[in-house]
Design goal:
42% helix; binds zinc ion; binds 5'-O-[(R)-(carboxyoxy)(hydroxy)phosphoryl]adenosine; alpha/beta
Length: 337
């Protein structure tokens, strides 16, 4: 029952989660169904794009129906459809886009494309009902490491970004080298909790003094070299220590740069977004820094940090003025912020 509320359905298929979320009046969570394909990809050590598209195709209709059931609304009660149309894997995105267009056409519901990265930021609007731009955001995922200044809903200016690997990618690669499997981020987090963060000193990569950009390929190589050297010496690798030391070296840089950017742009609010925002050390450390520097820190609850349809629905709500019969909507794998 919609009770006079505006209902948005959000579809997310950019990587390995087939996800649908439904929100009322933009910020009220009615349903959040995430069908993860992790098990299908684990045996290959990472996401296989072709497989991801096929699995989305198999699952997406069921996920849509499950979300409608959970929200206790029918398709006839949906006012707006939002779909992540980039960035992401092209075949995977196309499944979501085609599904959204089909529902939109059949039921004559306006549709709008959502930038997946704006979706990640929007996860915060669901968790903090009063939060609104402007703010500084740190977006950390498997494909992104960006500091962005968000001056309006769904508008962001990149202040700094990675010049090579994304931080999530670095976590995943280091985890793979240590045999932790895929996805590595959560496994590294678990190991790091048991480790000594000062056990190994990995060089912190800040690049030039005046840049907010990042580089994570060097630290990944440092870890691989360390592991190979230790193995050559016949030493056993202390996985928790490596995980904790690597986490410390990467997180220190992203936190310091984000705090500096917030100060330079006179922003009191820092918003975290993306899968890596689930990292327990990052969450704990940035909250401490927020207190020290008198900044308000916003971090979505864990389940809304990773890919989900709710964040897409919320972001779509704030772009509803662009919604309509957008049947030429296409998947854009390299869509920028
Ligand atoms: O945002 P997301 O779900 O998908 C993308 O848009 O990329 O982010 C996935 C990334 C992966 O690299 C995963 O290993 C990382 O987020 N991740 C973590 C943690 N949980 C997920 N990295 C570090 N610590 C975590 N607890
Ligand atoms: Zn994502």
């Amino acid at each position: 029952m919609k009770d006079g509320k505006h209902i948005t359905l959000g579809i997310e298929t950019s990587c390995d989660e087939s996800a649908v979320g439904i929100v009322a009046d933009g910020r009220e969570e009615l349903a959040n169904i995430v069908f993860s394909q992790i098990e299908d990809h684990t045996k290959f050590g990472g996401v296989v794009p072709e497989l991801a598209s096929r699995k989305h195709l198999e699952n997406i209709n069921d996920v849509v129906y499950e979300a409608l059931n959970k929200a206790e609304v029918t398709l006839d009660e949906i006012d707006l459809i939002g779909v992540a149309n980039g960035p992401g894997l092209v075949g995977a995105l196309l499944v979501g886009v085609a599904t959204a267009k089909a529902i939109s056409f059949a039921k004559q519901i306006p549709i709008v494309g959502v930038n997946h990265m704006h979706g990640h930021i929007a996860a915060n609007y669901l968790c903090y009902k009063k939060l609104q731009p402007p703010f500084m955001a740190l977006v950390v995922s498997g494909g992104h490491t960006n500091i962005v200044f968000v001056d309006e809903y769904n508008k962001a200016k990149t202040i700094g970004e990675t010049r090579d690997d994304a931080i999530g990618e670095a976590f995943d690669k280091v985890a793979r080298v240590m045999g932790l499997g895929y996805p590595g981020g959560p496994k590294m987090d678990k190991e790091a909790k048991r480790g000594n963060k000062d056990a190994i000193h990995f060089k912190r990569v800040y690049l030039e003094n005046d840049t907010y950009d990042f580089s994570f390929s060097g630290i990944k190589t440092q870890v691989i070299n360390y592991i190979n050297n230790e193995k050559q010496k016949g030493h056993k690798i202390n996985v928790p220590d490596v995980a904790a030391s690597f986490t410390e070296a990467t997180i220190e840089v992203i936190i310091n740069k984000t705090i500096k950017a917030a100060k330079e742009y006179n922003q009191k609010k820092i918003v975290l977004a993306g899968g890596v925002a689930q990292n327990s050390r990052l969450r704990e450390w940035i909250l401490e820094e927020g207190k020290k520097n008198n900044l308000d820190i916003y971090i979505p609850k864990g389940e809304l940090c990773g890919d989900n349809g709710l964040m897409i629905a919320c972001s779509a709500y704030y772009s509803k003025s662009s919604a309509g019969k957008n049947y030429d909507l296409d998947a854009i794998p390299g869509l920028l912020f």
